[in-house]
């Protein structure tokens, strides 16, 4: 019984010494690492690849690690990531956090954006989580390969859709149609090659025609220049002569109008009196001429005695 009690005491003392040794090692490790400050980051995106103990870097330099990952109690759309950063690291106002992914699937938190002269991030200079004395570092959208990994599901879905559509486009029927198009294009290319001499002759004729057209345009420009010179040099004198001619024509027209006004009564008298009298005289002359023609014919046929004797009366038979 006494031996058993001694074993218990030895075990208890040994356990106590081990606990004391572990505490001493942890204390020495903490003493060698220095003091840490805790910060919260609220990500509204997937934090896959992060875990407790994941590395935290500042401009690529390791400065701490992830202490805790949990959903936000206020809004489950956000993921609260608590990080522990050495106190000598300048986490100033303007610093933002980004999840940096890698091919291995392990992610880290990248801190960047601090500006010299800004105060440190604290509950006085920025917001703190409700009910906790932990400053909040604002997140920034993932960049580079981290953004690609964050959007990997969407990219894979679009890649699958693209592959499916490419499969539909490159179906057997479409491939046959494509072969037909290529064959037709080959035939058309051969026809163009055969028609090349004709095309060259046509181009040569077109060049000659263009040269003649250019020469004609030059001549036309020369004519236009001469006409412009003639108008500029003699236009004033021609306009003066034309103006004088128009004045003379206007005067002649005025004189003719006055003459017509003067002859209008005589024309009216000629129409109303002289012309009817002349027509009556002409009728009388026609009758006289007819009578003279009858006398002449009688003289020719019967002689001069016919004018004295008169016409013989026919014999009367009772």
Question: Which features does this protein show?
Answer:
6 helices, alpha+beta, 6 strands, six-stranded mixed sheet, 60% helix, 318 residues
Helix content: 55-70%
Q: How many strands, what sense, and barrel or not for the largest sheet?
A: 6 strands, mixed
Mean pLDDT: 77
Radius of gyration: 65 Å
Give structural notes.
The chain has 318 residues and is an alpha+beta fold. Among the domains are: 35-150, no CATH class; 153-193. The chain is built from 6 helices and 6 strands, in the order H-E-E-E-E-E-E-H-H-H-H-H. The protein has helices at 2-33, 144-150, 152-169, 172-194, 196-302, 305-309; strands at 36-43, 55-58, 61-71, 79-86, 96-100, 108-112. Strands 1-4-3-2-6-5 form a 6-stranded mixed β-sheet.
Short description:
The protein has 318 residues and is α+β, with helices and mostly antiparallel strands. Helix content is 60%, strand content 13%. It contains six helices and six strands.
Task: Note the topology.
Layout: H1 2-33, E1 36-43, E2 55-58, E3 61-71, E4 79-86, E5 96-100, E6 108-112, H2 144-150, H3 152-169, H4 172-194, H5 196-302, H6 305-309
